[in-house]
Amino acid sequence: MEATTGSTVRTVGLNRQFRTGTEKLTAVDDVSLEITAGSVVALTGPSGSGKSTLLHLIGAIEQADSGTVTVDDVEVTSLRRAALARYRQRVGFVFQRYHLLPALTVLDNVIAPVLPRRGRTDHATRARELLDAVGLAGRERALPAQLSGGQQQRVAIARALMGAPGLLLADEPTGNLDSTTGGQILDLLLDLRDRHGMTILLATHEQAIAARCDRLVRLADGRVTEDLDLTDGEDPADTYGRATQLRL
Ligand SMILES: Nc1ncnc2c1ncn2[C@@H]1O[C@H](COP(=O)(O)OP(=O)(O)OP(=O)(O)O)[C@@H](O)[C@H]1O
Ligand SMILES: [Mg+2]
């Protein structure tokens, strides 16, 4: 797999409202963030604070009402259809509920997002490499139901990496897992970042997960209320030092 440095992400004055009946609800409210290439950022905050919506806006799954998202030198919020589709293919998504296709093997689940593209043989080779990288070598022919939750999430991570994304957006990727398995999934994400260069934006409710990220951004009612550098110029492996700064 090719190493990159990961994407830089900038949001400026990002807004997203939802209309429910006559009510207007501001899910993301004037969010401006600069995210360094290669960093792993935890997005925290209570349920309904806008974490998922912010990830969807950055991944261009949803459209902002105002404000901009810029990834590397591409202003995502002004892209039109074809360019937008290309952008989405360059972003990796991982969700809390793995969203694997139950009738497809592990290998085919990983290949599925790129199937319409040409070069199927190469896709299978890459998918096998990725399954190896996430610790699932030998399970290519299993069906999702034959895997544990942690293993299914590993498949979902391999699938997200098929397009060699510079940016990985993960919405509570450990939310359905016990703390040990969740910790292992975070180990995997940090390792993939170190080896292949990727920026990771990860929504989480778990202190133990957030504490191991490089930075913590907290949302409340759609606004950024806290933005902590957890590396603090220290050895990035010093998670004890980071955890002691953190109060979730
Ligand atoms: N499609 C939608 N239609 C209407 N309201 C929505 C929609 N999506 C999100 N919202 C509202 O926007 C707000 C932010 O929701 P969001 O899902 O981003 O929060 P969250 O921080 O991810 O919460 P959780 O921790 O529960 O996943 C909530 O009040 C939610 O009800
Ligand atoms: Mg959410």
UniProtKB/TrEMBL annotation:
Domain ABC transporter per the UniProt entry, residue ranges:
9-246
Listed A to Z, the keywords are: ATP-binding, Nucleotide-binding, Transport
Tell me the domain of life: Bacteria
Residue segments, region Disordered: 228-248
Which GO-annotated molecular functions does the record name?
ATP binding
List where Acidic residues composition bias occurs. 228-237
Output the Pfam families linked to this UniProt entry.
Answer: ABC_tran
The protein depicted here goes by the name ABC transporter ATP-binding protein
Species, as recorded: Micromonospora parva
